[in-house]
Design goal:
7-stranded mixed beta sheet; about 20% strand; about 40% helix; alpha/beta; 8 helices; Rossmann fold
């Protein structure tokens, strides 16, 4: 087993997840694909593949237990984080990955093909212009925008049954600065404190739902 594969398995064990060997192999294949494309396209500021394993794969895997429902939207997906990681772990769920950047959308489309992800749809568009033909159960973002900006952009896609998940380093200031109208429209259901194996930094997952008047 390669060093990357060993570290991935150790990280999965620390996160108390069950991920098949086949899926683990595809996760490694995915970050190898990012590393390859990164030489020509600026997909991510992380250049070393061993750092990608911690900062991209394990960071994304940390939110796996919190993904609910059948349809998931990943906003500002970039190189497919966390959307592609989650789609590999949840082949029975549908994932829509949206980003405005053409190069990143092309990369995600290529990754979808090479990884055999029939449960992924890649959209190149602004999320505030995007109209979904079916509602989403979960909307997630990672390093996309402030919580208030995110809610402003995805508000038209949020129903009373949608859970909005914001992956953050620290959310206290953003939550305190939310405009009053957002505080009246949404509620912070829970702030999950995440521990990412190998990462000595704070990580949180903010679960938000729409208030029904």
């Amino acid at each position: 087993m390669s060093n990357l594969a060993t570290r991935l398995q150790q990280g999965i064990d620390e996160l108390a997840l069950t991920v098949s060997i086949e899926t683990q192999q595809k996760l490694i294949q995915y970050i190898e694909l990012i590393e390859k494309w990164n030489k020509s396209f600026n997909l991510t500021a992380i250049r070393q593949i061993d750092e990608m394993l911690t900062l991209h794969l394990l960071d994304s895997l940390a939110v796996v237990p919190f993904i609910t429902g059948r349809r998931v939207l990943d906003v500002g997906s970039g190189a497919g984080l966390p959307g592609i990681v989650l789609a590999l772990c949840y082949p029975e769920k549908e994932f829509v990955l949206i980003d405005t950047n053409g190069k990143k959308a092309r990369f995600m489309t290529q990754a979808k093909i090479e990884l055999g992800l029939s449960n992924v749809e890649v959209i190149q568009a602004r999320v505030d212009d995007y109209q979904a033909n079916q509602p989403f159960d979960t909307i997630i973002s990672r390093a996309f925008a402030s919580i208030s900006d995110m809610l402003g952009l995805v508000g038209h896609l949020v129903t009373a049954e949608t859970t909005v998940l914001a992956m953050k380093a620290d959310s206290e200031e953003e939550i305190s600065q939310m405009p009053t109208d957002y505080k009246l429209a949404y509620t912070i259901e829970q702030i999950h404190e995440l521990t990412v194996p190998g990462l000595q930094a704070k990580r949180q997952l903010i679960a938000i739902s729409k208030l029904v008047s």
